[in-house]
Design brief:
Elements: E1 2-6, H1 11-22, E2 26-30, H2 38-48, E3 53-55, H3 62-72, E4 76-79, H4 86-91, H5 93-113, E5 118-124, H6 147-165, E6 170-176, E7 178-180, H7 199-207, E8 214-217, E9 229-230, E10 232-234, H8 235-250, E11 255-260, E12 266-267, H9 268-279, E13 285-288, E14 297-298, H10 303-309, H11 317-330
Parallel strand pairs: 1-2, 1-4, 2-3, 4-5, 5-6, 6-11, 7-10, 8-13, 9-14
Antiparallel strand pairs: 9-12
Uridine-5'-diphosphate binds next to α7 and β8.
Length: 336
């Protein structure tokens, strides 16, 4: 089976491509490199010991995208490509809507023209907004609090409408919780531009001496120790969920949504402790005000994905910290 992977050079895409190739899928990557380095591709090729077909193309370039579909004759698409920084999305919302929503519309039209009807889409737990209770089930109400989240929610709605209009489509919407960790080789991992927005890359950069101290955003939430609780999931587990979703699409499920999380919540201080334990590094931190838009606690009920996909996360917080640290300590400046 031949799979076109948009955003396949990014953090989650690169980890997924490795597993797809190891499972015998043929791969074509489409990525404009706006948030990834070509070095990541060389490292993935080195890990799988195969040359990978790569097109440096923007999803906004519909003609080029269509040409790739005409030439490659793919069976299914995994769609990772998108911009993902919440704060930046508030500053430049039109850019986010254009890239994420218009990019996806182009992809869907091109898929339709070329009679490709199987799609796995990267959504996010952010579409649950501020949930009334945790753990979060797939049928909880959906909402968004920033343009990034709204772009994901809009795309989800577009996909559901598309399926209603034509039930030949098979679409798996995967709602990721908090991806962390890296490939066990230490050769690929998350390489954020500038100051990391997310907790784990910030911690690893403090540990490696690139940043002085972590700002912990609030310790007055109604959680175990007052700091925010999230469902961190190892990127290798997350990648495996995409292979299970592809297997599901072959059975013509229609348009389906799955949480990809572990079901376990960890507070910021618990993550710092776990990281200290596996790395032996002290993480300097100070408590500061809450970050605007943050919620107290967010973790998945992952049962539906287990029942329907036969998928569940295997790795715990220690392994997540260990692999994040291996990547960061072996590559202090990321792919540079
Ligand atoms: P990433 O930025 O590392 O990867 C995305 C890739 O898409 C990059 O290589 C980028 O160059 C490419 N891209 C972006 N816009 C494009 C366009 N218009 N045309 C072609 N390529 C384009 O991000 P990631 O962490 O791997 O996330 C992958 C997907 O998962 C994204 O859609 C993201 O919103 C979603 N997601 C990520 C997280 C997370 O915390 N990492 C959580 C939930 C959902
Ligand atoms: N967080 C923090 N300091 C940081 C980055 C994040 O205290 O520099 C906290 C944040 O408030 C949240 C948790 O860590 O409680 C996870 O944040 P992240 O941005 O990684 O994920 P998201 O908030 O999108 O779930």
């Amino acid at each position: 089976m031949k799979i076109l992977v948009t955003g396949g050079n990014g953090y989650i895409g690169s980890h997924t491509v490795i597993q797809l190739i190891n499972a015998g899928y043929e791969i074509v990557i489409v990525d404009n490199l706006c948030n990834s380095k070509i070095e990541a591709l060389s490292r993935v090729e080195n890990i799988v010991n195969t040359k990978i077909k790569f097109h440096k193309v923007d999803l906004l370039n519909k003609e080029k995208l269509n040409q790739i579909f005409e030439d490659e004759k793919v069976d299914a698409v995994i769609h990772f490509a998108g911009l993902k920084a919440v704060g930046e999305s508030v500053e430049i919302p039109l850019h986010y809507y254009n890239n994420n929503v218009v990019g996806t519309l182009n992809l869907l039209e091109v898929m339709k023209n070329n009679k490709v009807s199987k799609l796995v889409f990267s959504s996010s737990a952010t579409v649950y907004g501020d949930p009334h209770t945790v753990p979060i089930l797939e049928n909880f109400p959906l909402s968004a609090t920033n343009p990034y989240g709204r772009s994901k929610l809009m795309i989800e709605e577009i996909l559901r409408d598309l399926y209603k209009s034509d039930n030949n489509w098979d679409i798996a919407i995967l709602r990721y919780f908090n991806p962390v960790g890296a490939h066990e080789s230490g050769k690929i991992g998350e390489d954020p531009n500038g100051i990391p927005n997310n907790l784990m890359p910030f911690i690893t950069q403090v540990a490696v001496g690139k940043r002085e101290s972590l700002a912990v955003f609030g310790n007055d939430y109604p959680t175990v120790d007052g700091t925010g609780v999230r469902d961190y999931i190892h990127v290798v587990d997350l990648a495996a969920g995409h292979l299970k979703a592809l297997e599901k699409l072959v059975k013509n499920p229609g348009c389906v949504e799955y949480n990809l999380g572990t079901g376990n919540g960890y507070s910021v201080l618990q993550v710092i402790d776990a990281f200290k334990k596996v790395s032996g590094k002290e993480i300097a931190y100070s408590i500061v005000d809450r970050r605007a838009g943050d919620i107290a606690a967010c973790y998945a009920d992952p049962k539906f994905a287990k029942e329907e996909l036969g998928w569940e996360a295997k790795y715990g917080i220690d392994k997540m910290c260990e692999d994040s640290w291996r990547w960061q300590s072996q590559n202090p400046d990321g792919y540079e």
